[in-house]
Amino acid sequence: MPAPMMDTYSPPDLVFDHGKGARLYTEDGASYLDFISGIAVNCLGHAHPKAVAALTEQAGKLWHLSNMFKVPKGVELAKKLTDATFADRVFFTNSGAEAMECALKTARRYQFVNGNPQRYRIITFTGAFHGRTYGAINAGGNPKYLEGFGPAMEGFDQVEFGDLDAVKNAITEETAAICVEPVQGEGGVRAPEDSFLRGLRQLCDENGLMLIYDEVQSGAGRTGKLFAHQWVDGAEPDIMAAAKGIGGGFPMGACLATEAAAEGMVVGTHGSTYGGGPLAMAVGNVVFDELTSDGFMDHVVEVSNFLRQQLHGLMDRHADKIVEVRGKGLLVGIKLKEGYDPKMLGALARERNLLVGAAGDNVSRMAPPLIITKEDASEAVSILDEALGVLQKS
Q1: pLDDT at 308 over 50
Q2: What are all long-range contacts of 17-21, with beta carbons under 8 Å and residues at least 24 apart?
Q3: What pLDDT score was predicted for residue 239?
Q4: Considering only CA atoms, which of 60, 63, 89 is closest in space to residue 75?
Q5: Which strands sit side by side in the sheet containing 210-214, from one edge to the other?
Q6: What DSSP letter does each residue of 299-329 carry, written as one string?
Q7: Cα–Cα distance between 146 and 16 in angstroms, integer?
Q8: Choosing a second label site near 33 at 20 to 30 A (CA), which of 101, 179, 270, 293?
Q9: How many other C-beta atoms lie within 10 A of the C-beta of residue 149?
């Protein structure tokens, strides 16, 4: 008899019972060092006591209202986010893909209400990943994710990631916005030069375009700033999608925008039954407060620099298998040479009780909880060292 769930995933024969901090545990007590954290989601680790307490307290009072009524903790979190970023307005969602859908709609709506309905096209980049909804897979442009879902959606122009001249050449009178990840995750853990993001900002200003950042994976402190683009002066977006880490493991996303960008998003233009619900907002406030607490980001920067140093040593020891170390902060990857499979490396690491992921461009990806220690980083690199030692060409 076939399994009742769709075969859209292929998980290993491994079931976890509980987690604590940077560790996951099976029912029989086996411990695994988690260096993927639900794909950059569990930023505070597993079962963080403050998040658990906030969720438990809220669950005992009120689970759901819909947006027919105000959720005070949502207003509170929106104020925290706008005070800490470029944004003036926030729309809460349940996921990163939904946050991206809101961002795309906001950009097009901006052009519409400003008398430019012909401006609907959005420039995106090779290697992009913006989620799995229909609009998001078309924005990402990955042929593998588009296959079998009918004609490609009109309105997206994809150019080479990091190529500012290609962006200039792609801008037309129909262009509404440019959409980019400040650090690509699925596309191979690639961080562009700062000048590229500044150049995009300048092009948008010169051509009346909206600049959209997808910080679903690179945000929530992952790079040592609340959001990755905050490392770059003069490159603020007009609209930004966030999710993953901002809920610390509870399903939550947000679309942030300036007052000008959001002016067209009036009553009736967008909505979400579950977005910004009491449970998500209770946890989201705790996560934000922890991420912005004294010394937290300093810790992320310190431990990420240490991890990167250790990974460069790993590359030196396995120069026959590793091309380069990539990424920013605790969104980091090692690009393997042709013939070596990052999924196989992940399996070998898992056999040794370390969990890592894989990304595009033949990259082994790590996005551990932001609370990891240098000892955790050393342990992970030691296991990878052993796994790389036995990794064979596929």
Answers
A1: yes
A2: 18/46, 18/47, 19/45, 19/46, 19/47, 20/45, 20/46, 20/47, 21/45, 21/46, 21/47, 21/369, 21/371
A3: 98
A4: 89
A5: 89-93, 253-257, 239-242, 210-214, 175-180, 121-125, 156-159
A6: HHHHHHHHHHHHHHHHHHHTTTTEEEEEEET
A7: 32
A8: 293
A9: 11
What is the distance between the alpha carbons of residues 95 and 131, in angstroms, rounded to a whole number?
A: 9
C-alpha 257 chain-centroid distance: 17
39 CA to centre of own chain = 8
Quick: pLDDT tens for 216-254.
999 999 999 999 999 999 999 999 999 999 999 999 999
Q: How far apart are CA 30 and CA 284, in angstroms?
A: 30
Q: Is this model's pTM higher than 0.85 or not?
A: yes
Written as one letter, the residue type at 289 is: D
β 253-257/89-93 pair status: antiparallel
Burial of 63 (0-12, 13-18, 19+ CB in 10 A): exposed
The position carrying tokens 């003036």 is: 88
Residue for token digits 């039954």? 273
pLDDT in tens, 315-368: 999 999 999 999 999 999 999 999 999 999 999 999 999 999 999 999 999 999
